[in-house]
Design brief:
The chain is an alpha+beta fold. It is built from two helices and four strands; from the N terminus they run E-H-E-E-H-E. The protein has a two-stranded antiparallel ribbon with strand order 1-4. A two-stranded antiparallel sheet has the order 2-3. It starts with a strand and ends with a strand. The mean pLDDT is about 95.
């Protein structure tokens, strides 16, 4: 799976970071999220799917490889 985050759409809620901290982080200056691992390990995929599902801005896109 490949993970992409549309930073301009991000509203800095931090839900992705709380749900999948091994894949997402937030910038200190404005709280906007970013992806730290674009191709996460299989054991992280459930958390990444949940993060995408609960993102209030629908800024996370997942593509199966």
């Amino acid at each position: 799976m490949r993970v992409e985050l549309d930073e301009p759409k991000c509203v800095a809620s931090g839900q992705c970071v709380l749900t999948a901290p091994e894949v997402f982080d937030q910038r200190d200056e404005d709280g906007i999220a970013f992806v730290t691992d674009v191709e996460p390990a299989p054991d992280s995929l459930d958390a990444v799917r949940e993060a995408a599902a609960i993102c209030p801005a629908a800024a996370i896109r997942l593509t199966e490889r």
